[in-house]
């Protein structure tokens, strides 16, 4: 898929569209990938030359791990896992922890053995974690002392993170099998007796759980090849080989965004990653100042908060080192981009689009000029190709036509774990990933996400995209946030209902909201029900949790 638009007369150099196969090709320069099939992602990362000194900093304690420290620890932990716990290629290891300086060490050590890392959200309930354990069948777990109760009854051997003690302090000791601490493992000298099996690029490296394009949570199987392609894309995108940079990591490392870039990818470039265990605005801003950060990854709600509180923030904190923010999860509006650029004129906004199923890679804006294609998800990432497919007919569409976005490239997942039906409905026989996003690609090759395919509201058979109405609502001067959901109705099927967050001091009414939209859309798109809320629920990457709002709406019928 590393086809360059410059070497094919059939490809339009402006849009990247090839009429011969109805495919959009990336306008970015293709990135070379290693041809050695016997290669694991840990070895690939560790073999990259760079001038970096400090790899990770714990923002809370100030503890630093140099690159030499990291690789010594990875070697020691992988040796211990192999020699003492019998971890072999293909074994699944569960990692349950907030962001931590140990997170990358565990991931890199596990993957170096050809074993598979599966992460889970620390906020998940014991039932949700138990379901993932039942599905993925890990043989060992890493966790922190405060999360031990969530593994009670799992019968898994547990290695503690951030504790020298192997003795549980709670009365649940009979239910827990604590066998070691990572600090103990890191102190041991690497042994020559460990079993090092041959790992291939196509072997499984990670098993992250995602709701996918539709339905219940499923294990996304990503290979070492997928992660290597991701690392190359990240390093190339930010030109990180040129000079050392410092990134603040507030995004969760258990999520694809945090895991692929900040827990593993950036270590390949010699960059420094400052790790915050959880997001807290003041701690994040203080870390930028204290560690002279140059890059700040964000989700849109945090970026909006920085715009709204810019006067206070600029008085209190020194941002002179910061030159870029990276926003992912949802496209930014013109108002947000220009508002941020006005308040922070020396900081460039970069955006990205990706899925767990594409190892976080898909499209990006790599300059402020590109981000000013307002509402775009960006240009296709290097080595990536796309199709826009009519969801009804299956026909591949052309420029400026809306359909489901399909992606193909070296970072696309192998499939869903032990779920052939879900895999077959998401990956076609040629390796195209059906993203579930309704998009179009314009004449310059920029992707615009119109809506989630399965979130369309069907009003008397007409399709109503919630995102379109949400974008309109956010232009109202008295509305700070909004979400639109389908509300069931026996006469029309579904109609749009809006959850609205008023700005401070606003008294806008339900009829005021409905009238505002009615003047701007076709009759079938009108909002016919409004509820006011303090905030719109969103996931860690900034996407609206519509299912939660639908459940709330139905509970009030």
From TrEMBL:
SUPFAM superfamilies: Acetyl-CoA synthetase-like (SSF56801). One of its GO terms (cellular component) is peroxisome. The keyword Transmembrane applies. InterPro entries: AMP-bd_C (IPR025110), AMP-bd_C_sf (IPR045851), AMP-binding_CS (IPR020845), AMP-dep_synth/lig_dom (IPR000873), ANL_N_sf (IPR042099). The chain crosses the membrane at residues 254-276. Residues 48-417 form the AMP-dependent synthetase/ligase domain. This is Uncharacterized protein. It comes from Erythranthe guttata (Yellow monkey flower).
